[in-house]
Amino acid sequence: MTSPALEVLDVSRRFGGLLAVDQVSFTIAQGGLSALIGPNGAGKTTLFNAITNLFPPSAGEVRFLGESLAGLAGDRIARLGLIRTFQSARVFPGMTVLENALAGACLHVRAHPAAQMLRLPGARAEERKLRGKAEALLDLIGLLAFRDSAATDLPMGAQKNLEVVRALMANPRMLLLDEPAAGLNDSETADLAALLTAIRDTGVTIMVVEHNMSLVMGIADQVIVLDAGKLVAVGSPTEIQANRRVIEAYVGAEG
Ligand SMILES: Nc1ncnc2c1ncn2[C@@H]1O[C@H](COP(=O)(O)OP(=O)(O)OP(=O)(O)O)[C@@H](O)[C@H]1O
Ligand SMILES: [Mg+2]
């Protein structure tokens, strides 16, 4: 039997007196596209931070492809193939769009740094291959025409999509995306939805925090609902839309 992509087992995260994530458990199958939803302050970003050990769990355990992540540093987790993006876009200033995309691959560049510096044939071939991949992904998301622009000159929505491309350049086995559609206009959102389903179809597992319900319901096969740090529900989009506790969590949040 293949292990799940991600197992979150009784995970809690405390900040002083606040239990931001409270004994949350769920499993994500390999190849799935799960959405993590919940009102503002529900603990969604904190859960991502706990999974990737940016702010490690105060209790509980996270397993990735059957292996415990306890005590592993962020770069080690990334090397295992678990790659995340951040809620506020973080493109590298002083670099072009293409350079930002290529930066995502630096975890995996195989050529020895000296070979890269001397631009030996092996290193050049590797660079060409990565560049080709970056350009294909930029094309998919409508950013190829801006490849040589400064990344920080892009509109915020395009910067967020660029961050997704950079994450993909790291060859993830699983992607954790924190509100990738925030600030995107309708056509950028449609590009993103197409990109995410295309990536899922290549076998990459995806977990996405998202407030845009039509996006979530359109692409997710599993929806995980948090409210005030607690797991409220896990189910298919149809099940979640009909779930009274979910509706109450949202209506309650809106007063
Ligand atoms: N580093 C931190 N230190 C102290 N409290 C924190 C920290 N990070 C998050 N919190 C608190 O934890 C709770 C959950 O926050 P979190 O950012 O995880 O929510 P969220 O579901 O991502 O919300 P949003 O939809 O607004 O992004 C909030 O009350 C927040 O203030
Ligand atoms: Mg958040």
Q: Care to describe what's here?
A:
By secondary structure, the chain is of the alpha/beta class. It has helices at 44-51, 74-79, 97-103, 113-117, 121-140, 156-169, 186-201, 213-219, 237-241, 244-253; strands spanning 6-15, 18-28, 33-37, 59-64, 67-68, 82-84, 174-178, 205-209, 222-227, 230-235. The chain has one domain (6-253): P-loop containing nucleotide triphosphate hydrolases (Rossmann fold, 3-Layer(aba) Sandwich). It has ten helices and ten strands. A six-stranded mixed sheet has the order 6-7-8-3-9-10, with helices on both faces. Helix 3 (97-103) packs parallel to helix 6 (156-169) and helix 5 crosses helix 6 (156-169). The structure holds adenosine-5'-triphosphate and magnesium ion. Residues 44-45, 87, 178 line the site of magnesium ion (MG).
Topology diagram in text:
Layout: E1 6-15, E2 18-28, E3 33-37, H1 44-51, E4 59-64, E5 67-68, H2 74-79, E6 82-84, H3 97-103, H4 113-117, H5 121-140, H6 156-169, E7 174-178, H7 186-201, E8 205-209, H8 213-219, E9 222-227, E10 230-235, H9 237-241, H10 244-253
Parallel strand pairs: 3-8, 3-9, 6-7, 7-8
Antiparallel strand pairs: 1-2, 1-4, 4-5, 9-10
Helix pairs in contact: 3-6, 5-6
Bound molecules: adenosine-5'-triphosphate and magnesium ion.
